[in-house]
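anyone seen this seq b4? input:
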Amino acid sequence: MTAPIPADGHPVITAWHAISPFGKRRADFVDGLRAGRATAAALDAASDHGPDRHACLVPDFDIPEVLGRKGTRAMDRITGLAIVAIGQLLHASGGSETAGSAGESREDLAVVLGTTAGSVQSSMDFTRSSLLAEKPFYVDPGVVPNSVMNCAAGHAAIWHGIKGPNATVAGGRLAGLLALNYGRRLLNSGRARAVLCGAVEEHSSARAWLEHHSRADPAPRDTVLGEGCAVLVIRPPGLAVAGERPAAEILAVDSRVHIDGEPRETAAACVAHALKRAGVRAEEVWAVAPGGASGPAGQGEHRALEAMCGGAIWIRCASLIGDTGAASAMFQIAAVLSTADRAPDSAGRVAVVTAAERDGTVACAVLRLLGGGSFE
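predicted toks r here
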């Protein structure tokens, strides 16, 4: 364990990586976002993709080809995405403390991963096999771990030899921000010297059918379904290591729930409270990055930000990479950092990232941009 960070200090984001429908590299995300390149494509009619005919998929992502055949026979897509994203982030930091030298135990490195419900495809496949088999217990035991919600985080830590705290945070579209807050608390309590904090979502026929049947609004979605994984390295202040340049301070994270009433009011209260905790006025906000959910939740989120931070620049990526569910808020953070990295006037400015879910939950993160975030 390390000493808790000072009460007046803020954890910092020192590095990030994203596997997205733009591609498997961080540079693919940066270039795709800058070019405004749409990634929606027609799905293979011969495969079962559920009710949808188009989706935003990570291109050429075949788990045995990417990770090798050893240990991947029963690995599901959500776990593969998490393992590859975390591995590439560790590899990109080269000889830094995050990556560690050969043989390092990485006992003080934590993993916090946001999700909706793990791999719903694995869970449904396992349940179906129990119902259709000659006897209920005639199931493939190798599939059991995939149906557990924390499979991806646990498997990724084992794969990369990470022995610090390991947590899975389920929160739908809020999952990335909730995971960020959980990682911040690990640092505040001194339980880790660095946290690999991310969120992951896979595309599958099971997820597509769940989205199709759970939507109260019969109108078409604003975006098609997408998938991917985005991961940050967050550290206590002043502990960035060689090869890392701090990209942003995490000033505040807030979340709340509304049962009745107008979603806009709850979103506005969430943003206002987060800004107050961060010591920032609404007119000081340089950029806003809404999650962009469809329906009343997303509309309320949009109206709240427009009323409070109408003069800020708006950063969106859902229209390009699709509805990435649990990973959406973390992709929005990656989009903010990517945008700030090519804007010289962003250093010292503030960005607000929000998320809203149709179950009545909203969340907000306030970041102070530092003009870094690239590996040297």
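The domain at 248-369 is CATH 3.40.47.10 (Peroxisomal Thiolase; Chain A, domain 1). The first helix runs from residue 26 to 35. kinda curious what u guys think
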